[in-house]
Fold each of these.
Amino acid sequence: MESYNAFTKRKKDLFGIFDILAIGNGETVAIQLTSKSNMSTRIKKISESPMLPEVLRSNWRILVFGWYKKENGRYDYKEFEF
Protein backbone atom coordinates (compact mmCIF):
# COMPACT_ATOMS: atom_id res chain seq x y z
CA MET A 1 0.00 0.00 0.00
CA GLU A 2 2.26 2.68 -1.27
CA SER A 3 1.04 6.16 -0.42
CA TYR A 4 2.19 9.57 -1.59
CA ASN A 5 2.85 12.49 0.73
CA ALA A 6 2.24 15.65 -1.31
CA PHE A 7 3.93 17.84 1.31
CA THR A 8 7.26 15.97 1.26
CA LYS A 9 6.78 14.78 -2.35
CA ARG A 10 7.79 11.25 -1.29
CA LYS A 11 6.25 7.80 -1.56
CA LYS A 12 5.92 5.60 1.51
CA ASP A 13 5.53 1.80 1.40
CA LEU A 14 3.40 -0.25 3.79
CA PHE A 15 5.68 -1.06 6.77
CA GLY A 16 8.43 0.53 4.68
CA ILE A 17 8.70 -2.61 2.51
CA PHE A 18 5.54 -3.34 0.47
CA ASP A 19 3.99 -1.55 -2.53
CA ILE A 20 0.75 -3.53 -2.84
CA LEU A 21 -1.43 -5.44 -0.39
CA ALA A 22 -3.87 -7.92 -1.96
CA ILE A 23 -6.61 -9.46 0.18
CA GLY A 24 -9.09 -12.08 -0.98
CA ASN A 25 -10.21 -15.71 -0.84
CA GLY A 26 -8.88 -16.07 2.70
CA GLU A 27 -5.38 -15.01 1.65
CA THR A 28 -3.28 -11.89 2.15
CA VAL A 29 -0.41 -11.17 -0.24
CA ALA A 30 2.14 -8.39 0.22
CA ILE A 31 3.93 -7.41 -2.98
CA GLN A 32 7.09 -5.42 -3.71
CA LEU A 33 7.61 -4.30 -7.32
CA THR A 34 11.03 -3.34 -8.63
CA SER A 35 13.41 -3.79 -11.54
CA LYS A 36 15.07 -7.18 -11.93
CA SER A 37 18.47 -5.58 -11.32
CA ASN A 38 17.25 -4.18 -7.98
CA MET A 39 15.58 -7.37 -6.68
CA SER A 40 18.42 -8.42 -4.38
CA THR A 41 18.37 -5.02 -2.67
CA ARG A 42 14.62 -5.23 -2.07
CA ILE A 43 14.83 -8.84 -0.85
CA LYS A 44 17.59 -7.83 1.58
CA LYS A 45 15.55 -4.85 2.82
CA ILE A 46 12.51 -7.06 3.48
CA SER A 47 14.70 -9.74 5.13
CA GLU A 48 16.13 -7.15 7.53
CA SER A 49 12.78 -5.55 8.38
CA PRO A 50 11.61 -5.97 11.99
CA MET A 51 8.09 -6.46 10.56
CA LEU A 52 9.00 -9.61 8.61
CA PRO A 53 8.55 -12.15 11.46
CA GLU A 54 5.12 -10.74 12.35
CA VAL A 55 3.98 -10.68 8.72
CA LEU A 56 5.08 -14.30 8.25
CA ARG A 57 3.39 -15.37 11.54
CA SER A 58 0.20 -13.86 10.14
CA ASN A 59 0.49 -16.28 7.19
CA TRP A 60 0.86 -13.54 4.59
CA ARG A 61 2.49 -14.47 1.31
CA ILE A 62 5.33 -12.10 0.41
CA LEU A 63 6.23 -11.70 -3.26
CA VAL A 64 8.91 -9.62 -4.96
CA PHE A 65 8.51 -9.03 -8.70
CA GLY A 66 11.49 -7.81 -10.72
CA TRP A 67 10.58 -6.44 -14.14
CA TYR A 68 12.92 -6.43 -17.14
CA LYS A 69 12.76 -5.81 -20.89
CA LYS A 70 13.43 -8.81 -23.13
CA GLU A 71 15.34 -8.63 -26.41
CA ASN A 72 12.07 -8.66 -28.37
CA GLY A 73 11.04 -5.42 -26.60
CA ARG A 74 8.40 -7.03 -24.39
CA TYR A 75 8.49 -6.90 -20.62
CA ASP A 76 8.65 -9.93 -18.37
CA TYR A 77 9.27 -10.48 -14.67
CA LYS A 78 11.17 -12.67 -12.26
CA GLU A 79 9.35 -13.67 -9.06
CA PHE A 80 10.71 -14.37 -5.58
CA GLU A 81 8.57 -15.62 -2.69
CA PHE A 82 9.56 -15.60 0.98
Note: The two ends are 18 Å apart (CA to CA).
Amino acid sequence: MYIHQFTKKLIKKSCSKNLLISILLIFGALLTSCTNPIFSDLFDKKSSLESVKIKLPSGEIIRVKLALSEEEKTKGLSGISDSQFKKDEGLLFFYTKRGKRSFWMPDTYFPLDIFFLDKKLKIVDIVRNLPNHPGFEEPPPIPRARTVYAFHVLEMRSDSHLAKKLNHGDQLHWLSSISLSEIESRIHP
Protein backbone atom coordinates (compact mmCIF):
# COMPACT_ATOMS: atom_id res chain seq x y z
CA MET A 1 0.00 0.00 0.00
CA TYR A 2 2.81 2.39 0.86
CA ILE A 3 4.51 1.72 -2.51
CA HIS A 4 1.22 2.39 -4.31
CA GLN A 5 0.79 5.80 -2.59
CA PHE A 6 4.42 6.70 -3.20
CA THR A 7 4.09 5.78 -6.90
CA LYS A 8 0.89 7.85 -7.21
CA LYS A 9 2.60 10.92 -5.71
CA LEU A 10 5.65 10.45 -7.92
CA ILE A 11 3.51 10.14 -11.06
CA LYS A 12 1.41 13.16 -10.07
CA LYS A 13 4.51 15.27 -9.38
CA SER A 14 6.15 14.13 -12.65
CA CYS A 15 2.99 14.85 -14.69
CA SER A 16 2.56 18.34 -13.28
CA LYS A 17 6.26 19.10 -13.88
CA ASN A 18 6.01 17.85 -17.49
CA LEU A 19 2.81 19.81 -18.01
CA LEU A 20 4.44 23.00 -16.73
CA ILE A 21 7.48 22.48 -18.96
CA SER A 22 5.23 21.82 -21.98
CA ILE A 23 3.17 24.96 -21.34
CA LEU A 24 6.33 27.09 -20.99
CA LEU A 25 7.80 25.66 -24.20
CA ILE A 26 4.59 26.28 -26.17
CA PHE A 27 4.25 29.82 -24.79
CA GLY A 28 7.90 30.58 -25.56
CA ALA A 29 7.60 29.25 -29.11
CA LEU A 30 4.47 31.29 -29.76
CA LEU A 31 6.01 34.44 -28.32
CA THR A 32 9.20 34.00 -30.32
CA SER A 33 7.44 33.24 -33.60
CA CYS A 34 5.15 36.26 -33.28
CA THR A 35 7.86 38.80 -32.45
CA ASN A 36 10.93 37.59 -34.26
CA PRO A 37 10.73 38.13 -38.06
CA ILE A 38 13.07 35.20 -38.70
CA PHE A 39 10.70 32.79 -36.99
CA SER A 40 7.54 34.39 -38.37
CA ASP A 41 8.90 34.02 -41.93
CA LEU A 42 9.58 30.35 -41.31
CA PHE A 43 6.18 29.92 -39.68
CA ASP A 44 4.26 31.55 -42.55
CA LYS A 45 6.11 30.46 -45.69
CA LYS A 46 3.03 30.64 -47.92
CA SER A 47 2.79 34.42 -47.58
CA SER A 48 6.48 35.21 -48.16
CA LEU A 49 5.70 36.88 -51.50
CA GLU A 50 4.98 40.60 -51.41
CA SER A 51 1.27 41.40 -51.67
CA VAL A 52 -0.34 44.38 -53.43
CA LYS A 53 -3.82 45.40 -54.60
CA ILE A 54 -5.09 45.80 -58.14
CA LYS A 55 -8.39 47.42 -59.09
CA LEU A 56 -10.42 45.79 -61.85
CA PRO A 57 -12.49 47.74 -64.41
CA SER A 58 -15.57 46.78 -62.35
CA GLY A 59 -14.10 48.69 -59.39
CA GLU A 60 -13.53 45.49 -57.42
CA ILE A 61 -10.17 44.89 -55.79
CA ILE A 62 -8.02 41.77 -55.92
CA ARG A 63 -5.09 41.07 -53.65
CA VAL A 64 -2.13 40.00 -55.73
CA LYS A 65 1.08 38.34 -54.65
CA LEU A 66 4.13 39.29 -56.68
CA ALA A 67 6.49 36.75 -58.20
CA LEU A 68 9.67 38.82 -58.60
CA SER A 69 12.60 36.41 -58.37
CA GLU A 70 13.35 33.66 -60.88
CA GLU A 71 12.72 31.11 -58.13
CA GLU A 72 9.24 32.55 -57.42
CA LYS A 73 8.43 32.68 -61.14
CA THR A 74 9.59 29.10 -61.67
CA LYS A 75 7.54 27.81 -58.74
CA GLY A 76 4.43 29.87 -59.49
CA LEU A 77 1.42 28.16 -57.95
CA SER A 78 2.94 24.66 -58.02
CA GLY A 79 2.31 22.87 -54.76
CA ILE A 80 -0.28 25.41 -53.58
CA SER A 81 -3.59 23.89 -52.49
CA ASP A 82 -6.91 25.57 -53.22
CA SER A 83 -7.27 26.43 -49.53
CA GLN A 84 -3.98 28.40 -49.70
CA PHE A 85 -5.00 30.49 -52.73
CA LYS A 86 -8.37 32.18 -52.45
CA LYS A 87 -10.74 32.86 -55.32
CA ASP A 88 -10.28 36.64 -55.03
CA GLU A 89 -6.46 36.46 -55.15
CA GLY A 90 -3.98 36.52 -57.97
CA LEU A 91 -0.31 35.88 -58.64
CA LEU A 92 1.42 38.53 -60.77
CA PHE A 93 4.59 37.48 -62.56
CA PHE A 94 6.51 40.74 -62.81
CA TYR A 95 9.02 41.20 -65.63
CA THR A 96 11.11 44.23 -66.62
CA LYS A 97 10.93 43.59 -70.38
CA ARG A 98 8.37 42.37 -72.86
CA GLY A 99 9.08 38.81 -73.94
CA LYS A 100 7.77 35.35 -74.73
CA ARG A 101 5.72 34.09 -71.80
CA SER A 102 4.65 30.47 -71.57
CA PHE A 103 3.24 28.65 -68.59
CA TRP A 104 2.57 25.06 -67.65
CA MET A 105 0.71 23.43 -64.78
CA PRO A 106 2.87 20.86 -62.92
CA ASP A 107 1.83 20.07 -59.35
CA THR A 108 -1.23 22.34 -59.46
CA TYR A 109 -4.52 21.72 -57.71
CA PHE A 110 -7.01 24.02 -59.45
CA PRO A 111 -7.52 25.27 -63.04
CA LEU A 112 -6.24 28.76 -63.86
CA ASP A 113 -7.13 31.73 -66.01
CA ILE A 114 -3.93 33.35 -67.26
CA PHE A 115 -4.00 37.04 -68.22
CA PHE A 116 -1.11 38.38 -70.29
CA LEU A 117 -0.52 42.08 -69.65
CA ASP A 118 1.35 44.98 -71.22
CA LYS A 119 3.65 47.29 -69.24
CA LYS A 120 0.68 49.37 -68.01
CA LEU A 121 -1.36 46.29 -66.98
CA LYS A 122 -3.72 46.23 -69.95
CA ILE A 123 -4.88 42.69 -70.81
CA VAL A 124 -3.44 41.73 -74.22
CA ASP A 125 -4.36 38.03 -74.23
CA ILE A 126 -6.12 35.44 -72.07
CA VAL A 127 -5.89 31.68 -71.61
CA ARG A 128 -9.02 30.48 -69.82
CA ASN A 129 -9.49 27.39 -67.69
CA LEU A 130 -6.04 25.84 -68.11
CA PRO A 131 -6.46 22.44 -66.41
CA ASN A 132 -4.55 21.58 -63.26
CA HIS A 133 -2.18 18.62 -63.01
CA PRO A 134 -1.41 17.27 -59.52
CA GLY A 135 2.19 16.05 -59.46
CA PHE A 136 4.96 16.08 -62.05
CA GLU A 137 4.45 12.66 -63.64
CA GLU A 138 3.39 12.24 -67.25
CA PRO A 139 1.19 10.77 -68.77
CA PRO A 140 -1.20 12.40 -68.92
CA PRO A 141 0.69 15.37 -70.34
CA ILE A 142 1.07 18.42 -68.12
CA PRO A 143 -1.16 21.18 -69.57
CA ARG A 144 0.66 24.12 -71.16
CA ALA A 145 -0.60 27.54 -72.20
CA ARG A 146 0.31 28.90 -75.61
CA THR A 147 3.28 31.28 -75.76
CA VAL A 148 2.32 34.97 -75.73
CA TYR A 149 4.43 38.13 -76.02
CA ALA A 150 3.69 40.17 -72.92
CA PHE A 151 5.24 42.18 -70.12
CA HIS A 152 3.56 40.74 -67.04
CA VAL A 153 1.29 37.76 -66.39
CA LEU A 154 -1.55 37.48 -63.88
CA GLU A 155 -2.80 34.06 -62.77
CA MET A 156 -6.18 33.65 -61.08
CA ARG A 157 -8.31 30.65 -60.24
CA SER A 158 -10.71 29.80 -63.07
CA ASP A 159 -13.58 29.49 -60.58
CA SER A 160 -13.07 33.11 -59.44
CA HIS A 161 -16.05 35.36 -60.13
CA LEU A 162 -13.55 38.22 -60.53
CA ALA A 163 -11.50 36.37 -63.16
CA LYS A 164 -14.66 35.70 -65.15
CA LYS A 165 -15.28 39.48 -65.38
CA LEU A 166 -11.92 40.21 -67.02
CA ASN A 167 -11.73 40.55 -70.81
CA HIS A 168 -9.19 41.22 -73.53
CA GLY A 169 -8.42 44.97 -73.60
CA ASP A 170 -9.41 45.61 -69.95
CA GLN A 171 -7.16 48.02 -68.06
CA LEU A 172 -6.14 47.00 -64.54
CA HIS A 173 -5.15 49.70 -62.03
CA TRP A 174 -2.23 49.45 -59.61
CA LEU A 175 -3.21 50.49 -56.06
CA SER A 176 0.00 49.82 -54.16
CA SER A 177 1.97 52.53 -52.39
CA ILE A 178 5.05 51.28 -54.24
CA SER A 179 5.00 52.05 -57.97
CA LEU A 180 5.61 49.60 -60.81
CA SER A 181 8.88 51.41 -61.65
CA GLU A 182 10.06 51.07 -58.02
CA ILE A 183 9.44 47.33 -58.20
CA GLU A 184 11.32 47.21 -61.49
CA SER A 185 14.29 48.97 -59.86
CA ARG A 186 14.24 46.37 -57.05
CA ILE A 187 14.67 43.62 -59.61
CA HIS A 188 17.37 45.44 -61.62
CA PRO A 189 18.99 48.13 -59.43
Note: Strands lie at 51-55, 61-67, 89-93, 99-101, 112-117, 123-130, 148-150, 152-157, 173-174.
